[in-house]
Every structure is written in structure tokens, then in C-alpha cells.
Amino acid sequence: MVGGFVLGGMVLAVAAILLFGGMTLFTTKTAAVVFFEGSVAGLQIGAPVTFRGVRVGAVRSISLRLDLQDLSAAIPVYLDLEETAVSAVNHARSSGVVTLPTLIAAGLRAKLATQSLVTGQLAVDLDLLPNTAAHLIGGGGDVTEIPALPSELQQIKSQVAEIPLRELAETAGRVLHSLDAMSTRLNTTIGPTLDSLRGTSDAAAATLATTARAIASLQTNAAGSLRNLDRLVADAQHQLDSGSVDLHRTLATADKALVQANQMMDTAKDLIEPRSQMRADLAAALRDLAASASALRGFSTEVERNPSALLTGRGGR
Q1: Is 126 exposed, middle or buried (0-12, 13-18, 19+ CB in 10 A)?
Q2: Residue 219: enclosing H or E segment and its boundaries?
């Protein structure tokens, strides 16, 4: 019975070791160290080491190293990496196992990652980031050092630390002071302005009322004027209709007068033209009339000299 109890205890111990150790007792491990400069609060021994979500090891120990010369602190975190968790393909000089220095040269970097937002536990996350600088601190002895990168939280803290909070607070204070002064000035000036606006509004309302009355009066007068204009147009149309006969007669008479005037103008034109027959006849008549007038003048002179010539003639005795 005692022997069976001891044997059963040993079996349970082995089973517990295998269960809680994750069958890692029989795997080959590679030691590595990462120096974190920031806080590692939440990182515990046995915390998983992952590569893009795949567990490749665990945290073995965490310590603190102080430099008394410049009073700087570094936190070396020692890792146990399982070699069988990573295999290589298309590697001519390897038997399928990837070495840690090869991965570091290819850009292997380590940073802290949050396992749970509720508990705040951290893990070490590995990734290949060839475009980042490999900042090595050294001092890990024979253990290979993996370059560390700041976590997202540390990056946020650094960015927040770089923000000039004091200058922003002073600027905000000045802005608030300016707003307070502006509010005071507005309170002192808005009252008279409101009174002026109220007076202007009352005057505008009175002006609008006067304008409305004037428009109503104008509408009444315009309506009367339009009615008078309609009657005037009707009377003018009636007079035009009644006087259209007389107008036609007057136009006919005027037409005849124009015809006669044109005839007179033609006659006068015939009289004025130098070579016209009428002008030649008129000139001959004028010459004959002049000769007759000369003879009559001589006859009258002869009669004045010798009145008896009327009885005896020029040669009578």
C-alpha cells in the first residue's frame, strides 16, 4: 500500500510537471536577453514570448541594472526560446533550424505587448522589422541580445511628453482671458447698441406704416386716374369715329390743292427756264409792249406840242 501510494504520487508529480511545463522539459532552448529602458510593470516570469501571435518561448528572469556613472537604468529580461518552434525553408546551409543571430541580422526586434487590458499583464512580442535601427546595450555576457523597441504605450507617452503642455496651458489661459475681456466689452456695449437698434426698429416700423398708407393712397389715386384715362380714350375714339368723314374730305381737298400746286410749279418752271417757248413769247410781247409804249410816248409828246395834230395829222395845215 505504501509503495502504491508513493508510485501514485510520483505519477501525479510527473503529470503536473508535464501539464504546467507545457512539455518543455524535453525541448531544446536558446537563451536570449532583451534590455528594456522603460517600465516593465505587468511583465512576469513565465510570461509568453510570441512571434506575431505564435508562442516561441517564455520569460525566464527579470532583473535590474543600474549605471552609477550616468544614473541610468536598464532592465534585462532573459528569455528561453524554443528552437523547434521555428523552422527554416529554402536555406542551403541550414538543416532546418533558424539561428538567433541570423534572425537579428534580418531585423528581429522585441517589444512589450499587452496580453489583457483587464489585468494589465504584458508579454514579449518578437517581429522582423528590418527598417528599424538595432540599438544594443550589451552586458548580457554570453547570451545573445535582441534589440528592443519601445512599445505602443511608450511611444504614446513619448509623444505626449513632447507636447508643450505648459505653453498650451499658458496659451489657453491667454485665450480665456481675451474671451473674458471681450465678453466684458460686449456686455458694456451691447446695451446701448440694443437701445439704438430698438429705436431704429421703431422708426423703421413707423416709416413702413407711413409708406403703407402712402401706397394705399397712391393706389386709390392711380385707380381714379386709370378710370379717367379710360374715359378719355373712349371719347377720343368716339370723336375719331365721328370725324372720320370730315377728315377724309379734308384729306381729299388737300390732295387736290397739292395737285394744283404741282401744276403751278410746273408752269413757273416753264416760265423760268431760259430756252422755254413761253419765256420767248413773253420776251417778244414785252418788246412789242415796249415799242408800243415808246410810240405812244412820242404820240403824246407830239400832241402836247401840236394839239391840232389830232385834227390835221402830222403834216396837215
Answers
A1: buried
A2: helix 165-242
Q: What is the pLDDT of residue 21?
A: 54
The pTM (predicted TM-score) of the whole model is 0.44
Confidence bin at 275 (pLDDT 50/70/90): low
Q: Report whether 43 contacts 124 (CB < 8 A).
A: yes
Quickly count: other Cβ atoms within 10 Å of residue 125's Cβ. 20
Measured in whole angstroms, the distance separating CA 42 from the mean position of its chain's CA atoms is 51
Nearest by Cα to 78 from 33, 138, 30: 33
Distance CA 14, CA 7 (A): 11
Kindly give the interhelix angle for 244-272 and 165-242, rounded to the nearest 10 degrees: 80
Contacts of 280 (CB under 8 A, 6+ apart): none
Domain positions in the chain are 25-161, 273-311
